[in-house]
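To whoever is on call:

I kicked off a structure prediction for a single chain this morning and the downstream step that reads the tokens threw a length-mismatch warning. I double-checked the sequence; it's 241 residues and nothing unusual in it as far as I can see. Pasting both halves so you can look.
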Amino acid sequence: MLAVGRRGDGAFGDREIERFSVLATQAALAVSVAERARLAREIAVHEERGRLAAALHDSVGALLFAIGVGVEDLADAARDTRELRDRLDRLRRQAADASSALRESLRTLRASPSALALGVALRADCTAFSDRTGLPAELVILDEVPPGLPPSRSEALVTAAREALLNVEKHARASAVVVTVGQTGSSITVAVHDDGTGLGPHHQPGLGLTSAADALARLGGSLTVESDADGGTTWRARLPC
């Protein structure tokens, strides 16, 4: 049983008990927020897998159906050698498209939940950017099976990319943006490239980019910003895997 007495008699007073109660409430709130965030990420991953399954059905299924119909039609065109050759070429192209789409879908489905979560978050930011600005923002994942990252590292990369997109929106006067994710050696890089006007000679990073760079540095990573010779800017966030 918790004793209540004066401050000098070794027992806790009402003020200390109230302070502990506030701290306990804050701790419980932090745990609740963390759990909600974890569930939100799991839901996002589940929705992404559902989207990919639907895309697999719609794209690859349609292509394979077209190939099947084409093969059946070949029997009717067997007498015309040129027509038969043209149809076979078309079937080869459709088969190649089907195989490529299938590999892409399976690559993503084979990725670990943590690796997929990074792509889900970046794709959501690209979509939000396009909704706000009306500009296309494409996400390209370069590795067949991207590495899984702890949540703290994934969030640092996503935050840096988000800040880069905000800077593009505010300053770049761009017409398109490409976000890439790729692994080089033992590091993973998220790059945001725009085709805008580039950085001025006296450009100074804002608070958001500075905070993102500091967060990456604490994890052993870096954030660099470069203006391209032909215009545009590339922001690169790197972290050890």
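Update from on-call: the warning came from a stale cache, not from the record. Cleared it. Sanity check on the structure: Residues 16 and 146 are 50 Å apart (CA to CA).
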